């Protein structure tokens, strides 16, 4: 989308921000010391960098790496020409047509992990797929990581809301993968949010350092809503995202050069009349395209855009319009990892069982489109023309019979047909069909096998850690 001159302008603006304004690291003297030793200017909590310095510090981060699942068949590659889709993240509420909107529980969390596991269009189990509020705040990371490791074989995200929770997550991943394997390979991923504008709090930067010390994948994700956490122009949002993201990646590399990183972003616009968040807007989509280009120039895998995100309160037409708009831009930008690809409602406050299914269906269509099409002799169908001739129907040709099962993507939810047939079948909306579909998915789910000794060790670790501290609900 952007020319070489435009890209250089944005990169120069990122350097200007880091040199003239700087970034604060609050409550993390270790991070400040690392930056000072690396040659940055440190004054109090504020860190400033000469132009080009942060980019140079990021240069040891790999451009492509494997994020391992506990089954090699479910490992994924981040970078290159690969794309990895994962469900929503962080919602305190869930909703479905049967029970309505409610606070999420651990059982909801487990259900969503199960659904992600049985969905071949999702490649990653996610992290805090929903917030299980029936478990104490200081212990719920243990239950979430245990669910990811035992109910799925796909890669996952660990806890980041305290350094000890990060350590617990890595320790549990080591029980499953083996500590020697973990020391050399990425098996768990961290989501490190920036307190935009231009602030890293001590909890996030300390968790970042824990994952980096263990050589585990760190995704650094600024969250900028134009007009709130940064200027409201797309160019400014792109430049600030690049600046904030590079600083986090630089810190990872100072802790452990070569540690795998992802340049993340969660950006959008606001309704400047009401202050409400908006998703899938053209301005946000333009930033997504820009960050795809900027991330490739930086040389690290990219998590750009937002996936199938929406401000809608139900899985309605607005939800699908917002989500489709954001998802098209995200995938066309060349991003490598897509968070919130399934289930997101209410600007992230709610995970919807029905929308999860509808989004997964759309993920399949998008992946089919990204795959392109063949242009060999078989694809051209010479024999079909010879068999059908002129003015005939191709439905019964041998070529059609060879390919009809795989020629077109077959969605689970949308369907065509006459109005009368739809009425006879109950006049079901897409959301109502999805209600039946997520129940079928959970009914068909089979827990993947795990070595009994490993599972016992995981369970014992969780029990031990829970017994060591009092419950804390905030």
Give the strand tally: 19
Q: What structural category characterises the helix and strand content?
A: alpha/beta
Q: Can you tell me the CATH superfamily of the largest domain?
A: Trimethylamine methyltransferase-like
Which bin fits the share of residues in helices? 40-55%
Give the averaged pLDDT, no decimals: 96
Q: Strand order within the widest sheet? A: 2-3-1-10
Major beta sheet summary: 4 strands, mixed
Could you name the ranges where pLDDT drops below 50 across 5 or more consecutive residues? none
User: Beta fraction of the residues?
Assistant: 5-15%
The CATH architecture of the largest domain can be named as: Alpha-Beta Barrel
Write up this protein.
The protein is α/β, with parallel strands linked by helices and 474 residues long. It has two domains: 4-57, no CATH class; 64-370, Trimethylamine methyltransferase-like (TIM Barrel). Helices cover 46% and strands 13% of the residues. The chain has helices spanning 4-21, 29-37, 53-57, 106-118, 140-151, 163-177, 179-184, 202-213, 234-255, 282-298, 317-332, 353-370, 377-380, 382-388, 398-403, 419-424, 430-444, 452-467; strands at residues 23-26, 41-43, 46-48, 64-67, 76-79, 84-85, 93-95, 102-103, 189-193, 199-201, 217-221, 223-225, 261-264, 266-270, 277-278, 302-303, 337-338, 344-345, 350-352. It has a four-stranded mixed sheet. A four-stranded mixed sheet has the order 8-7-19-18. A four-stranded parallel sheet has the order 9-11-13-16. A hairpin with a 6-residue loop joins strand 14 and strand 15 (277-278). Helix 5 packs parallel to helix 6, helix 8 crosses helix 9 (234-255) and helix 11 runs parallel beside helix 12. The radius of gyration is 23 Å and the shape is globular. The mean pLDDT is 96.
């Amino acid at each position: 989308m952007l020319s070489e001159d435009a890209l250089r302008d944005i990169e120069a603006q990122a350097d200007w921000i880091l040199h003239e304004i700087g970034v604060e690291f609050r409550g993390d003297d270790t991070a400040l010391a690392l930056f000072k030793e690396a040659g940055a200017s440190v004054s109090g909590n504020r860190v400033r960098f000469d132009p080009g310095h942060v980019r140079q510090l990021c240069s040891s981060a790999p451009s492509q790496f494997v994020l391992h699942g506990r089954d090699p068949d479910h490992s994924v590659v981040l970078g290159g020409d690969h794309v990895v889709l994962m469900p929503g993240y962080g919602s305190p509420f869930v909703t479905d047509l049967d029970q309505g909107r409610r606070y999420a529980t651990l059982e909801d969390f487990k259900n969503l992990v199960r659904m992600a596991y049985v969905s071949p269009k999702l490649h990653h189990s996610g992290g805090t797929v929903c917030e299980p509020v029936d478990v104490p705040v200081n212990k719920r990371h243990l239950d979430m990581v245990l669910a990811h490791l035992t109910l799925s074989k796909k890669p996952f995200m660990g806890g980041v809301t305290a350094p000890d929770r990060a350590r617990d997550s890595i320790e549990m991943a080591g029980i499953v993968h083996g500590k020697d394997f973990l020391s050399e390979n990425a098996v768990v991923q961290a989501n490190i949010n920036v307190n935009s504008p231009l602030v890293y709090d001590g909890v996030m930067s300390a968790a970042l350092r824990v994952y980096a010390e263990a050589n585990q994948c760190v995704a650094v994700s600024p969250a900028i809503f134009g007009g709130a956490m940064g200027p409201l122009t797309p160019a400014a949002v792109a430049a600030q995202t690049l600046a904030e993201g590079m600083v986090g990646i630089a810190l990872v590399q100072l802790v452990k050069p070569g540690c795998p990183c992802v340049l993340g972003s969660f950006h959008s616009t606001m309704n400047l009349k009401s202050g409400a968040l908006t998703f899938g807007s053209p301005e946000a989509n333009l930033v997504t395209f820009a960050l795809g280009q900027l991330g490739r120039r930086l040389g690290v895998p990219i998590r750009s855009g937002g996936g199938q995100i929406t401000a809608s309160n139900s899985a309605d037409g607005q939800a699908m319009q917002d989500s489709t708009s954001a998802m098209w831009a995200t995938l066309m930008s060349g991003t490598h990892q897509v968070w919130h690809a399934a289930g997101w409602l209410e600007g992230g406050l709610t995970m919807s069982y029905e929308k999860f299914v509808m989004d997964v269906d759309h993920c399949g269509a998008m992946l089919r489109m990204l795959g392109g099409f063949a242009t060999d002799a078989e694809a051209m169908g010479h024999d079909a023309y010879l068999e059908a001739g002129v003015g005939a129907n191709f439905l019964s040709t041998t070529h059609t019979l060879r390919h009809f099962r795989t020629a077109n993507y077959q969605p689970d939810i949308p369907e065509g047909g006459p109005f009368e047939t739809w009425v006879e079948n109950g006049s079901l909306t897409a959301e109502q069909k999805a209600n039946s579909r997520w129940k079928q998915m959970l009914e068909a789910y089979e827990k993947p096998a795990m070595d009994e000794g490993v599972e016992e060790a995981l369970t014992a670790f969780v029990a031990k850690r829970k017994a060591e501290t009092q419950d804390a609900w905030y």
